[in-house]
Specification:
mainly alpha; 55% helix
């Protein structure tokens, strides 16, 4: 028996659950993450920056994402390289020197 991809409804194969999951994923992906024009963002400084100077807001956001990614990747590399001897995991006796 061939499965019809255009068939709607359950049909005993669980297609309705798959459609609802797909629809939920589509709705999640279609929902805006940040809406600078929403009334709840009237006092938000970043929303005001996006509305008034989009290029600066984009550069600020991209810079923050890159800096955060670099810091996280450095810390992960240190953890992999040094393992249990990594300084944040081995606090020692509390002396600086």
């Amino acid at each position: 028996m061939a499965i019809d991809p255009n068939k709607t409804g359950d049909g005993g194969n669980g297609d309705a659950d798959d459609e609802s999951v797909d629809q939920k994923i589509d709705n999640l992906l279609d929902t805006p993450f940040f809406d600078p024009y929403a009334s709840s963002n009237d006092d938000n400084w970043f929303a005001n920056l996006v509305r008034n100077d989009y290029d600066s807001a984009e550069a600020l956001y991209a810079g923050a994402v890159v800096i955060f990614g670099v810091i996280v990747s450095q810390e992960l590399l240190r953890i992999v390289k040094y393992g249990g001897m990594y300084a944040s995991n081995n606090l020692g006796d509390g002396k600086l020197f």
